[in-house]
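User: Continuing from earlier, I have the next pair ready.

Assistant: Great, send them over.

User: Here they are, in order.

Assistant: Folding the first of the pair now:
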Amino acid sequence: MKPVRAFSLLIAGFSALIFAGSIAQTDNNTKILRYQVDTQKSLLHWRCDQHYGTVPFEKGYFSLTNGQMEEGSFLLKMDSLKDADIDYKLMRDVLENILRSKDFFNTANYPFASFEIYSSSFNHHGKGYIQGDLTLRDVTKCISFGAAITHNKGGNIHIQTDSIRIDRTNWGIFSLSPNHVHSEESFIVSDTIVISLSVVADEE
């Protein structure tokens, strides 16, 4: 073998080793943490017109890779939806039953809503956004929203989202919609529902 060719092969082999070592180092520096949602401390908050309330979590998890949320799933108990603004129990029960009925969230057939996370971007202050698929009544739509991640001293994480405005008609909920029915104004319900998530999660 000619000296020049042997030297070229030696350089190529040495470069490959350096490149492989660089990849290994990158992989070793990747920090992946998985968290389980604490369903006793986490809630979805909702508001529509003058009414507001909560929806509890059934379960959920997410993973942080070097501080970025790359995957996760939240399951919400729509059949446990609560109103929080009406003091009179009978009237509160009436509203909750209407919202659970087939005209709205149809919780008898669709007791759960879900949100699947597939991307996020957070800065070193824990501020950023989350993008994923929200499924209501077996209809799935992509949404994105701002959020903040706080690392607490106890080792858990708190995620607080910004207010998220969704149009219920995009999920096939047309009952009493001002744009889809003709009725007296007192029987009209806004198409816009404002939601936010407050999630507390513990590292596995």
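And the other member of the pair:
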Amino acid sequence: MCPAGFWPGFLGWYFARMNEPAANATEPESTPRGRKMSEPETSAQYDVWSGFYDRTFGALVHRRQSRAIAELDVKPGERVLDLGVGTGLSLIKYPPDAKVVGVDLSAGMLKKADDKLQGDGLHHADLIQADAMHTPFADDSFDHVMVSHVISVVSDPNRLLEECKRIVKPTGTIVVLNHFQSPSPVVGFFERVLNPVFVKIGWRSDLTLQECVRGLGLHVLYHFKLSWIDFWQIVVLSPTPRAPLPATDLPRGAGPTAI
């Protein structure tokens, strides 16, 4: 348990820390919905988050992260890219007979992930520090790509999914786990208004799924939440057209492919 007064004190320190300009950072452009994400600032933010991420936000996403990885249906010997691997909480959830590469921009996050690799003997995984929108991998390098809680963190979500499409095989699957702006007018209004605050914390609250996939030729196979009150969605994408799944094979509550 945290002592009384911990969170107000911590948040005061955190926002003061985040108001300090990151090295080599430039002022991000404004958008109609508020401030835009900036990679230098985001990297610095998540270096700070890395010290307590597993005990805070990470503890909230365990169940849905496991379910999102299950949607990949990874087979023995397949290569999986975990884009935005963070502190590596997801790495133990992959089959040990798969080959997993975790990528993150934050050195602090990757240090925590490497501790898990060494401590848990996760020999099926490797880690690379890189920009998720400009990875060092060749075309068609991976059977699957997992994008967990990172698409609302980058400055250009559409560019990130374009990169996913480039590096996944035509027969592969891209799974995105993230919060997207609510279609409810009331909830969506508050998500837009509060976006500058959430950007300071480290992610956008006003991002729509339509904005992410627009013009890329990606095919939304299905998307769903674990419960109707969940803030996060699991979105399953294919780089090429596929026959629709029978309704009996879709997760409960899965939405239509049209978005």
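Worth noting for the second one:
The longest strand covers residues 168-179. Strands lie at 30-31, 34-35, 79-83, 99-104, 125-129, 142-148, 168-179, 219-224, 232-238.
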